[in-house]
Amino acid sequence: MAIRKIAQIGHPVLRQIARDVSREELASPAVQAFIDDLVETMRDADGAGLAAIQIYEPIRICAIEVRNNPRYPYKPQIPLTILVNPTLTAVGDEQFDNNEGCLSVPNLRGTVRRFVHLRCQAWDRAGAPIDEVVHGLKAGTYQHEVDHLLGTIFVDRADPTTFSTWAEFDRHHKAAFVEKAQALVARVGS
Ligand code: NI
């Protein structure tokens, strides 16, 4: 396993549309080793998620995991999840304001409207079907990662008047956001 370099905003790879992965490709040792690297790189950088395109492979795979994350201490835990060829469908039209950062966007956070309830259909890394409905902050993380596979970065969707550095977010906005986020978690479960 190896820690890969993470593409930074401005690199054209982040604007590519990732391509689907075939079952044969997914089962190959090369793609399985790539997924191990994706997970290791995400963990090394304390990410809540990482899309393959962020480590310069424009294929439709992303990793998501939240486990006592120091970047997002208020996020509920998410067990390690690998999404292959994911498609997301909003369930209902309820949205919330999610404050996001990204490993490809140094020292910037911003507020993005995200769906509260979301159906995710994908394969896991073994090719087994995933069909789940996710909610709240977890749904926000799923939308952020799957956006990467479409060449979209959270800054594209964010209200630019909400942009802040991580330090200024902590100083001026974190308390209010965490209070709202915890109310959402209490209501919808994650
Ligand atoms: Ni990101």
Q: Rg from C-alpha positions?
A: 16 Å
Specify the overall morphology.
globular
Order of helices and strands: HHEEEEEEEHHH
SS field, number of helical segments: 5
**Distinct ligands:** nickel (II) ion
Q: Which strand order does the major sheet show?
A: 1-2-3-6-7
Largest sheet: 5 strands, antiparallel
Total domains: 1
Q: What is the beta-strand fraction?
A: 25-35%
CATH classification class: Alpha Beta
CATH third-level topology: Peptide Deformylase
**Global structural class:** alpha+beta
Distance between the termini: 31 Å
User: What share of residues is helical?
Assistant: 25-40%
Query: How does CATH name the architecture?
Result: Alpha-Beta Complex
| Model regions low in confidence, pLDDT < 50 over at least 5 residues | none
CATH superfamily: Peptide deformylase
Mean of residue pLDDT values: 96
Number of strands: 7
Secondary structure layout:
Layout: H1 23-27, H2 29-44, E1 49-51, E2 61-66, E3 78-90, E4 95-102, E5 105-115, E6 117-123, E7 129-135, H3 136-149, H4 154-157, H5 166-188
Antiparallel strand pairs: 1-2, 2-3, 3-6, 4-5, 6-7
Bound molecules: nickel (II) ion.
The site of nickel (II) ion (NI) has 5 residues, from α3.
From the structure above, extract its key features.
five-stranded antiparallel sheet, 190 residues, Peptide Deformylase, binds nickel (II) ion, alpha+beta, two-stranded antiparallel ribbon
Task: Describe the protein.
- It is a single chain.
- This protein has one domain (12-188): Peptide Deformylase (Alpha-Beta Complex), CATH 3.90.45.10.
- It is α+β, with helices and mostly antiparallel strands.
- It contains five helices and seven strands.
- Helix content is 33%, strand content 29%.
- The strands form two sheets. The chain has a five-stranded antiparallel sheet, sandwiched between helices. Strands 4-5 form a two-stranded antiparallel sheet.
- Nickel (II) ion binds at residues 102-104, 144, 148.
